[in-house]
Amino acid sequence: MHHGTGAEHLEQLSAAQVQPPKVANTPPILTIVVPTLNERDNIKPLIALLDAALPNVDWEVMFVDDDSTDDTARRIRALALVDPRVRCIQRIGRRGLSTACIEGVLGCSAPYVAVMDADLQHDEALLPRMLDILRKENVDLVIGSRYAAGGGATGHGSAGWVQCSPA
Known about the structure:
By secondary structure, this protein is an alpha/beta fold. The chain contains 4 helices and 6 strands.
C-alpha cells in the first residue's frame, strides 16, 4: 500500500460543499464517536447535521471505520483535509461495534464523548441537551433511548432520557 499525502487519490471537495469550522484552534469539549462500515454516502450529511445541531459547542467527530469496501475512510480523510474537526481511525483486520466505540473514545481528548450511528437514525439535535445535563447535573452518563419515558421509534427527536447518577 502506498502511503504519502494521498491528496491525488482523495475526493476533491469545494469550499461550498463543506463549510470550514468556526474556530479551528479551540480544543473540542465534545467528541462524537461514529463507528462506520460502508457508510460513505452518510458522512457529509452527518457532519452537516452535527454542525447545525452544535453551533455553540466546540466539537469534533471521530469516525472509526472497520475498513469499509465503499471507501468510507477515504471520504472521511478527504473531508478532514478541509475540516480539522473531522478525524478518522481506519481499523484493518478488526471489526465490531463495541470495540470501535472503545477505540474512538480512547483516541479522543475531549472531556465529553457521545456515540452515534452513521446511518442518520440517531437524533443529533439531542446532543446539546445531553451535554448540558452532563455539565450541570450530578450524573456520569446520559442515554437517549426510544424505550425511556418520552421516547419512541417515530424518527428524529423521539428519544427519552436516562440519566445515570454516580455511585
